[in-house]
Specification:
By secondary structure, the chain is α/β, with parallel strands linked by helices. The protein is built from 19 helices and nine strands.
Length: about 400
């Protein structure tokens, strides 16, 4: 029994994800646990399909167990996103390895880049670069070039400039930080880049597919049939979600929040709260985002701030490691993983958010946030969904041939 973890968002699950899943099996994984973002994703957006649908699709794609990354961590920087996800895998106590895609394709190269990035992130020079308006990734890259020279700096900088590599580096940092025995393995990303707007050989990035969705362009060639069928059904039932459907309630929150309250939201600091509130007079979210965006504050960071503000996530919540593992989908093989985790697990795992919320004070806080996040997600769907859905969800044993 070889248990492999995959950290993912699957927004939506596409042919590149299927390739990664199949390669992970070929590399010896007998059981796969996917730790997946829920209804919100790390780029600061709403997931097109709800988390339960995406979890079922992940099972169709080859996962045996799908566990949710809490919204606190799903709507955070790459560092905290990785920390939360790796914490869940480590807390199972029985995961042998973590498999991730990367542009580098070499764990050793990624480890070197991870060590250098960690060294730079703890340097006092970093804050100076940030004060001068540089984004965090650009500041780190500048420090790498200055410290290691052009030849070495270019190689490390190239690694740190690629989105999948950046997440891989953060996974490795988190594994070191937890002193985890989970071994990292990587599958080299092929065909198209992370945010590429070009498809090649049936492979397209999730960004390209979401663009097709927005522009109502057929994307069926780039996803498995069952994913496309699930999307078509969601559209027909008006369950597709879009952040634009939240525009009015986000504007309401923006116009009623105080600078003091904004300062408690993750990623807000150095006076950014005033810049945000100054734009409350505008009537269009896209215009507000563009007005706030700077070299230092990326679009993804700004959108995460707004969603954290709306949900009520605070900086102090990131001081709490995930206090439980919420199961979104499980197969018979997935039950083997859970059976083993009963002996080795460090936190409770289960399907009921209500029961998990009673396991500790921190768990209660996280379950309340998750319930609120799902209620807001229901408002982002084309047809307003029911409230309290997260606490009423029933999760059974999934099969790989379930029809959508």
């Amino acid at each position: 029994m070889k248990i492999t973890g995959i950290i993912c968002e699957y927004n939506p699950f596409h042919n590149g994800h299927l390739y990664h899943m199949n390669q992970t099996r070929k590399n010896g994984a007998t059981h796969i646990v996917a730790v997946m973002s829920g209804n919100y994703v790390q780029r600061g957006d709403i997931a097109v399909l709800d988390k339960f649908t995406r979890a079922k699709l992940a099972v169709r794609g080859g996962a045996d167990l799908v566990i949710e990354i809490p919204s606190v961590y799903a709507l955070s920087s790459a560092e905290f996103y990785a920390r939360g996800a790796v914490s869940i895998l480590d807390s199972l106590g029985c995961v042998d390895e973590i498999s991730f895609g990367s542009e580098a394709g070499s764990v050793e190269d990624l480890k070197k880049a991870s060590e250098i990035a960690e060294e730079c992130s703890s340097s006092p020079e970093l804050e100076e670069y940030l004060r001068n308006g540089m984004s965090y990734p650009n500041a780190i890259n500048t420090m790498v070039y200055e410290k290691y020279g052009k030849k070495a700096g270019n190689r490390i900088g190239e690694i740190l400039a690629s989105p999948n590599n950046v997440l891989a580096v953060e996974y490795l940092k988190a594994l070191r930080g937890f002193g985890s025995g989970i071994q990292p393995v990587t599958v080299q990303r092929k065909s198209v880049a992370h945010d590429s707007m070009v498809a090649l050989n049936g492979i397209a990035s999730a960004s390209f597919i979401r663009k097709c969705i927005q522009e109502k362009i057929d994307f069926s060639d780039f996803v498995p049939d069952y994913v496309y069928s699930a999307y078509v059904r969601a559209v027909s039932e008006k369950r597709r979600a879009d952040i634009k459907n939240l525009e009015r309630i986000i504007l309401y929150k923006l116009r009623t929040i105080t600078p003091e309250q904004l300062r408690s939201v993750p990623d807000v600091g150095q006076g950014l709260e005033y810049r945000i509130i100054e734009n409350a007079v505008l009537t269009n979210l896209d215009e507000i985002f563009m007005n706030i965006k700077t070299r230092r504050y990326t679009m993804a960071r700004i959108k995460r701030i707004f969603l954290n503000m709306l949900i009520g996530i605070e900086k102090s919540d990131l001081d709490i490691l995930p206090p439980y593992g919420r199961i979104l989908a499980v197969t018979e093989r997935g039950r083997d993983i859970l059976s083993k985790a009963k002996e080795t697990g460090k936190i409770p795992f289960g399907t009921s958010l209500a029961k998990l919320g009673k396991s500790s004070e921190d768990a209660q806080r996280f379950s309340q946030i998750e319930g609120r996040a799902s209620d807001i997600y229901a408002l982002a769907q084309d047809k307003t969904g029911r409230g309290q859905s997260d606490f009423r969800a029933r999760i059974g044993i999934e099969t790989e041939d379930e029809e959508f």
